[in-house]
Specification:
Elements lengths: L1 H13 L3 H14 L4 H13 L3 H14 L4 H13 L3 H14 L4 H18 L3 H7 L27 E6 L3 E7 L8 E5 L3 E6 L7 E6 L10 E4 L4 E6 L43 H14 L4 H15 L2 H13 L9 H4 L20
Protein name: Protein SGT1 homolog
Keywords: Repeat, TPR repeat, Transferase
Family: Belongs to the SGT1 family.
Amino acid sequence: MASDLEEKAKEAFVEDHFELAVELLSQAITLDPLKPEFYADRAQAHIKLNNFTDAVADANKAIELNPSLSKAYLRKGNACMKLEEYQTAKTALETGASLAADKSRFVKLIEECDELIAEESDTIPTQEKSTTQDPTSKDVQPEDLSEEPIVVVAKPKYRHEFYQKPEEVVVTIFAKGVSKESITVDFGEQILSVNIDVPGEDAYVFQNRLFGKIVPSRCRYEVLTTKIEIRLAKAESIPWKTLEFNKETTIAPKAIASVTATQRPTYPSSKPKRTDWDKLEAQVKKEEKDENLDGDAALNKFFREIYQDADEDTRRAMKKSFVESNGTVLSTNWKEVGTKKVEGSPPDGMELKKWEY
């Protein structure tokens, strides 16, 4: 029974139903509380839901049950990095790397930890080298150092990442010590624009068309001491595969020429130009109106519209029936599907087979 719940949890995870995955794994743990893989997998689902403290607790339990389970250390390292506990994350990742057959993911995250730890302590290794002098050269003047200039590799000014919930997407821009007065955030129907204009520095501009539509009036942001946290309210409760619009991974209007993922706006001065949001949104709406969908695209759009306008019971029924039937049944009647398992119903002439992991 516990193994069946584990299989269903994996299916839910593949479909980005992370809350359902947590629920199924919790049921599996109740039946078999000594299997470390259940805790490690639930930790990953918690990370996707931004429950980082719960993820660390599950990873620790998995490690307690099986100290050689490398993926448990990977989960703990990931969650601790989100909580900005970089030293703890590094220790967990180094232990996991010593146990894993494939160390590439661990190595990449350990390098990122080292960079973040260095940023926190304001440590610049090249400075030590530049101030070290040969004991025999007592009369070296400061201008003599110009013969051996220090080469500094430029890094992006600020980095960003995102995670999502069914109803919102949270974008984090790691900008330490930036005042609220230097930050401008604007929301469009499918546009996010962030400008950071610190006096004496080049302006930072993040402006992209988003994967899906948002509700600008319900979007908000908060400026913290180490980061800017932006909460985007989804117009539709569908999972975003990426943060930025990509015509290859989303069913949406074609990207307008002025805002694309590969061509970002540039400005002649440090002060960005004001964006004409009305014009951008009018173009997006026009393309949507002119777009003729057929086949799977039209069907997917139809299902999204049903889901968007449905009440909570209808949405639960759609999720449960789709997952349990392996995508062959989509019911909107919660009273019908809420009390029993939904069996698969393949089209005529086709056979339903269990997906192999």
